[in-house]
Amino acid sequence: MKIILTGIQPSGDLHLGNYFGAMRPAIELQSQGQAVYFIADYHALTSVTKADDLRRYTFDVAAGFLACGLDPQKTILFRQSDVPQVHELAWLLSVVTPMGLLERAHSYKDKVAQGAETSHGLFAYPVLMAADILLYNSDLVPVGKDQKQHLEIARDIAQKFNDRFGPVFKLPEPVIREATAIVPGVDGRKMSKSYGNVIPLFGEEKAVKKAVMGITTDSTPMEQPKQIEGTTLGQLMQAVNADGYKDYVAQAATPGVGYGDLKKKLLSEIATRFAPYQEKYRHLQAHPAEVEDVLRDGAARARAIAAPVIAKARVATGLSK
Ligand code: TRP
Q: Which of 145, 199, 218, 320 fits a disulfide with 314 by CB distance 3.0 to 4.6 angstroms?
């Protein structure tokens, strides 16, 4: 059975962009092979600076996945830091990773260009990510477009290691989700915490309402028909309720229907669609031991996959006999 592996950074409150862009596709893939999904808390430390935030985001990602339909019987869900052997592997990979490979990484170069204070952790981020992928014998790695280069780097590093020490690692195949999966934020740009344009997935009703009512629209007056196909409002509706989308377009084109009405309709569609997930999520928040049990079991299963791989890498490098 193919191993399908991906990591999710716990770096903020979950929003609809996370759901449509990463969570739903990952949950759909769980029947296609052995899914191995982890919460990349080590990686998140490159941006999250408060311990309480990291703990809460990590728990919330786990609870969010379970609430949205991740099946912990099938899928291995675990916390990256529960398998610290990944750092041993990261070091073994570091010694074969050319500096130039990391210096060319877009995500690192972007941070430098933005004038962000950089750290060794940020620079070495792709090496740790390669270790995540290689430690669990991954066949397929589904990620968003922004992670494409990181996957190429992981393959390069695996190849370099195999060239020097013999065939230890399987080269993973990237599965890149194209931009169609990107849900716009309320201002029309990609929905992202850093743009402050998100619609929360498990937020208070008031916060969801505020975000939806704040969706940017043009100034077509109430009496005139509106063309919402391809607009932010239209795209969000299409994501939330694809079946109801045609009716929605027709409704928008009806004179006398205002943007306020259309936003209220979207709001109620969001409430309907996500109500069952929110209920499960609230249950898990009230029963954190259920989430912890899943993560503990997931870590044990992940360690069982990792153990022979790290043992082989240790022998290949001469660390052990
Ligand atoms: N860098 C990924 C992101 O920000 C998260 C991640 C960490 C990951 N390790 C991984 C994704 C391994 C896939 C495989 O989205």
A: 320
